[in-house]
Write a structure and sequence with these properties.
Elements lengths: L2 E9 L3 H10 L4 E5 L16 E8 L2 H14 L4 E7 L4 H4 L7 E3 L2 E4 L12 E4 L12 H16 L5 E4 L5 H8 L5 E4 L3 H13 L5 E4 L10 E7 L2 H11 L3 E11 L3 H9 L4 E8 L2 E7 L3
Parallel strand pairs: 6-7, 8-9, 8-11, 9-10, 11-12
Antiparallel strand pairs: 1-3, 1-4, 2-3, 5-6, 12-14, 13-14
Bound molecules: S-adenosylmethionine.
Amino acid sequence: MAWVSLTIDVKEPDSELVQSTLYDFGAAGLEIRDSQNPVMPQVRKPAAGDAIVIGYFESKGDAEEAKAEVLERFLGARATLEDVVERDWSVAWRDQIKSVTVGRLWIGPPWERATAPKGKVCLFIEPKMAFGTGDHPTTSLCLAAVDDFMTGHPGATVLDVGTGTGVLAFAAKKLGAGRTVAVDNDAVAVALAKECAQENGIEGVELSTKALPSLDGVFDLVLANILANTLVELAPLLAPKVKGRLVLAGVLVPQAEEVKAAFVKQGLTHAQDVVQGEWIRLDFTRKP
Ligand SMILES: C[S@@+](CC[C@H](N)C(=O)[O-])C[C@H]1O[C@@H](n2cnc3c(N)ncnc32)[C@H](O)[C@@H]1O
């Protein structure tokens, strides 16, 4: 099949929004080059502070529309369209997916099932149209928090807000969580997370698009890996759900203070920060 590639050079903080824009306009797959995804020798690197996002489209028309949208929305972005030499994309993109080991957990794609480590708690996540294959730093930071918390709190109740593929909720369940609720405002993500639960033989995770106020109960562990501005907006709804520990990610280091202040204002106590590259995880507790 003939593909069209759309290569966008953009400021690294805008990279994730550009990625979702390309998906919205019909990209079948993406390649990212940034500080977290260094390139092979002889491959063009992003300029300092920039990322390169390459979207692969079946339709030239979709790629042209995506290009126009990106150039309008992201000041200073540069975009190039190119015909791609015939290539089996369905296999080539697999090279981009990395398995990760975090504490007791191993998360990887289904085609690594045969080589998954025997002594680990394994989750197989097919990278489709939802976020959360484990290899993004924000996901790894949360997986470490899940592993830590579940060690000391077997049977804990868990709420995962912005569950994407369901990866954090499933990890918690596999590590012995009790009632586990996972929500996402994207119905496609929830449908994929349900498939993913089935593929991993996980039962009992309550997956839905429910809004926070309609969820019953409070939870020993609340996880939310969403973007900083959304977390600030959600603070008054999220904080009342926290019985024990709140773990926030999706926050860039310079955004941390604003997010922290929003949750402290809701009566939570800031416990610790964990930094991975440009990303920071913020942990809070509710004092009895
Ligand atoms: C960065 S992904 C995190 C996925 C997964 N939890 C992980 O850690 O890899 C953020 C998810 O939050 C969802 N989301 C964004 N805003 C939301 C909101 N206000 N309420 C619920 N989910 C939201 C998005 O649809 C997306 O699936």
